[in-house]
Q: What sequence folds into this?
């Protein structure tokens, strides 16, 4: 209630009513355009340069979320999927989850004296990359099993949480969760402000990413899709637990990505972002739907601020997907050219 | 703007301001209590009798969604999971998806003349329940493969959609989607109005339920978790498709339910509803979390309006879970006593 007043009460109350109406009208407009966080005139993507990718993204998003527009997409269908490693955060010099596994080997070595003389563990403990590489996929699988299985899901989440809090990236000397790309974090928030539901669809493990995805990306656990270990429901001291077994359940990579999207989401995304050949089928699956859609690739071109790699890299190789992106005119983001800032800590 | 007026302008405008304030205050209260759809004084569960289960549900939900309350649960953690067959819709005289499979055998019989003389298909075509039962689990598996595999996910969804539109329940002569329990539909809507995220976690197939779940339950595809067939990403005439293979991927039943909840949702529900021993582990998993939680069982006690069955039934057997529910004081809904209405069409 406005304070009681006499002179000139009528005028003051009218002005007050007008202000309330103006606010109500503005609120209504914001709801109508689906725009609740990003106001008009405020740049939703300040870490992007004003180049073609940013323009294509903004045009797609505004069209998709503006009713009556030919590019309009009903809110329920606004599903956006993002690869994680190399798309939302860095993946060099090795996938961060693999670094987690190496760090776990070191942490567990005291209770495994035999590892000092047994490969692949010896190679990890001695930092011998050549010897590690020589153990091949089988060696990596042994490391993964030794560090990722045989505990409950709660215990695993706690271990990851502790690692996230203490581990540092070897080049940038920052927590790994600081290695997220600021332009992509802005894109995720922008999409959500326009009624999109943002998902991670990554080759990394779901239960690994879930530990930090909500905090760093604003993506809740139920929108994190990844590779998975088999888990087994058991009673332990009268309480039910899920024990992580030494068996891979599913690899969410390449042709596995559309499979996982169908299984977890049950409808086709309208926007997909990846950075490597592992994302090609997800991009193709997204592209093959009817109506407006957006396919994007993060191209690592900035050795100075981050890393530069593509066709020859063993991690995050971008070769066939780059050819297809160019041929089909998908949006290829050149990190050096198109991003004003890569990391928030810069 | 109120119309311009002179006599007595001040009083009228003041009354108008007061009304606006009252509305704003009411709106604020609704937001504060998380109550946006269900207004005060309107019964959110009109198809429930005013017995213990309804009171327990309402108390739990109001507490969970009222900040400052000891039973308060942050919105992001308000995950509610529901079994489907026998919990949200009927499951007698046979699981509806199995009836779909039988109907598909009949529809496909013309292009499979050999089925006339080959079990288990002959039994289905002749309606010979005894012969069908004699083929056992292997027979059912053959029927499922013949009717559920070898097509794309899009083709399967279309087939289910056609069946849903045309098939009728043998006793009630209604579309199967009319066989949903009105009290449970109200409960789902009530929970959502209080900020809960509602999920299906069912032994039925995800891609089967997704065809109708949004329409009949208001549950979007990405919140439908079920059993699944393996799918394979393929290029068909230059377009990517997912082909349903003749292999089971995952059975979302019994101990599989907590496994699926962890895999798909990544956090523990605070409310779970089931109706059979197949839901026992899901209820246990939900119960084992910290803080307030609600475990409910739909007990089929009404042979007149629906069906009456529990410990001896081959479909939806409720035996061990009923003992546990009684011992741990979970809420057991007696359909006959606690539901004013079972189906909307009554």
A:
């Amino acid at each position: 209630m406005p304070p009681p007043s006499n002179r000139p009460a009528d005028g003051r109350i009218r002005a007050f009513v007008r202000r309330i109406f103006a606010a109500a009208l503005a609120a209504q407009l914001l709801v109508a355009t689906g725009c609740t966080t990003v106001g008009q005139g405020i740049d939703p993507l300040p870490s992007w340069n004003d180049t073609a990718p940013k323009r294509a993204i903004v045009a797609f998003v505004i069209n998709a979320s503006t009713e009556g527009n030919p590019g309009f997409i009903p809110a329920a269908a606004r599903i956006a999927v993002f690869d994680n490693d190399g798309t939302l955060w860095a993946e060099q010099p090795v996938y961060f989850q693999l670094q987690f596994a190496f760090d776990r080997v070191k942490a567990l070595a005291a209770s495994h004296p035999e590892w000092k003389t047994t490969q692949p563990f010896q190679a990890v403990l001695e930092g011998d990359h050549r010897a590690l590489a020589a153990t091949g996929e089988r060696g990596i699988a042994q490391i993964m099993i030794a560090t990722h299985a045989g505990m409950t899901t709660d215990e695993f989440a706690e271990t990851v949480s502790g690692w996230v809090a203490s581990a540092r990236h070897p080049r940038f000397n920052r927590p790994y969760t600081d290695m997220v790309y600021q332009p992509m974090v802005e894109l995720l928030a922008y999409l959500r402000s326009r009624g999109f539901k943002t998902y991670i669809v990554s080759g990394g493990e779901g239960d690994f990413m879930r530990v930090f995805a909500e905090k760093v990306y604003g993506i809740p656990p139920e929108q994190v899709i990844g590779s998975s270990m088999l888990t087994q429901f058991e009673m332990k001291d009268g309480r039910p637990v899920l024990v992580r077994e030494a068996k891979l359940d599913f690899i969410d990579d390449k042709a596995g990505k559309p499979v996982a999207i169908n299984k977890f989401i049950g409808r086709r995304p309208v926007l997909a972002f990846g950075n490597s050949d592992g994302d090609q089928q997800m991009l193709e699956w997204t592209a093959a739907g009817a109506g407006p859609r957006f396919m994007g690739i993060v191209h690592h071109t900035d050795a100075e601020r981050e890393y530069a790699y593509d066709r020859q890299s063993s991690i995050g190789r971008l070769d066939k997907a780059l050819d297809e992106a160019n041929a089909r005119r998908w949006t290829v983001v050149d990190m050096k050219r198109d991003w004003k800032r890569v990391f928030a800590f810069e």
The mean pLDDT of chain A is 91. The interface with chain B takes residues 1-2, 9-10, 13-14, 16-18, 20-21, 76, 79, 153, 197, 206-207, 210, 214, 220-222, 224, 228, 231-233, 239-240, 242, 249, 255-256, 258-259, 262-267, 281, 284-285, 288 of chain A (CB under 8 Å). Residues 9-32 of chain A form the longest helix (24 residues).
